[in-house]
Specification:
Elements: E1 2-9, E2 16-23, E3 34-40, E4 47-50, H1 52-60, E5 64-65, H2 67-75, H3 81-90
C-alpha cells in the first residue's frame, strides 16, 4: 500500500520535511516514489508547499495520507483560484 507521509531532512535540531509518496512498509527516510512538496516548521509562519494536483492524483490511486499530512493540508488550504484568474487575465 502507498502512503503519503513526511520524510525528515535537515540537520540535527533543524528539522525540514519532504512530503513523499512511498511504500507504507519502508523506513521513514528510505526510498520513495515521488516528492510532492515540503514542510518547514522553523519559519514563521510555518511553510507548506505542495503540488496539490499530484496529491489528489495519488489519493485517487489509493495512496493513504498520514495523520500529520492530512492535518497540515487541512490547516493550510490552497489559495482560491478565483483570485489568481483576474491577475493572469490582466497581464
Amino acid at each position: 500500500m502507498l502512503a503519503i507521509r513526511l520524510r525528515r531532512t535537515g540537520s540535527k535540531k533543524r528539522p525540514f520535511f519532504r512530503v513523499v509518496v512511498t511504500d507504507s512498509r519502508t523506513a521513514r527516510d528510505s526510498s520513495f516514489v515521488e516528492v510532492l512538496g515540503y514542510y518547514n516548521p522553523r519559519t514563521n509562519p510555518e511553510t507548506l508547499k505542495l503540488d496539490r494536483e499530484r496529491l489528489t492524483h495519488w489519493i485517487s490511486q489509493g495512496a493513504v495520507a498520514s495523520d500529520t499530512v492530512r492535518t497540515l493540508v487541512d490547516r493550510m488550504p490552497e489559495a482560491p483560484a478565483a483570485e489568481a484568474a483576474p491577475e493572469a487575465a490582466a497581464q
